[in-house]
Design brief:
The chain is mainly alpha-helical and about 170 residues long. It has one domain (about 5-169). The protein has five helices and no strands. The protein has helices at about 5-10, 10-50, 55-60, 60-105, 110-169. Helix 2 packs antiparallel against helix 4 (about 60-105), helix 2 (about 10-50) packs parallel to helix 5 and helix 4 packs antiparallel against helix 5 (about 110-169). The longest helix has about 60 residues, at about 110-169.
């Protein structure tokens, strides 16, 4: 890098911190949408809790299966948030390490630069791993949600068929 690095291009430091900063922003948006999904899952569970006061509904095996899936979905969303928060912290730390590295690079200390580059790479890998882990859990939670949607749609169709037959009689 040498001592002329910042003098030649004062915006070079911004280039190095742009990628982690953009990834931090993307992970933050993902965290917010995951929190919204978690709140919707909590509302759905609260609705099912109210429905469980009806003994016919509460003893229905399909209803119990839906409750179990909603609970599992909540746990997956919590796990996704954990992974996403790791990603946010890692990307933010990578941005800081990059800034420190830019300053240390001006000193010409190659040993310190190797340590800082290694730390930046580890933090970047940790951040990407967090995003991947969070997305895997979000995908699994979405699959559970889809199972519940399909089951509820099937129940609605069955009720409509029963209602039509009753109306025809």
């Amino acid at each position: 890098m040498g001592n002329n690095f910042i003098i030649q291009n004062p915006f070079a430091i911004l280039t190095f911190i742009a990628a982690p900063a953009i990834l931090t922003n993307a992970a933050s948006v993902l965290a917010m949408s995951t929190i919204n999904r978690m709140l919707r899952t909590r509302e759905r569970m609260h609705q099912m809790f109210k429905e469980s006061t009806d003994s016919v509904v509460a003893n229905n095996p399909q209803f119990i299966a839906q409750v179990s899936r909603a609970e599992r979905q909540g746990l997956l969303l919590l796990s996704a948030l954990h992974w996403i928060y790791v990603a946010i912290g890692s990307f933010a730390a990578a941005s800081l390490v990059t800034l420190i590295g830019a300053g240390v690079g001006q000193l010409g200390n190659t040993f310190m630069m190797r340590i800082i580059v290694g730390a930046g790479l580890l933090l970047g890998i940790s951040g990407i791993s967090g995003l991947i882990g969070g997305c895997v859990n979000l995908f699994k939670a979405t699959q559970l949600s889809l199972v519940n949607i399909r089951e509820e749609a099937e129940l609605i169709r069955a009720r409509q068929t029963t209602n039509r037959k009753t109306d025809e009689i």
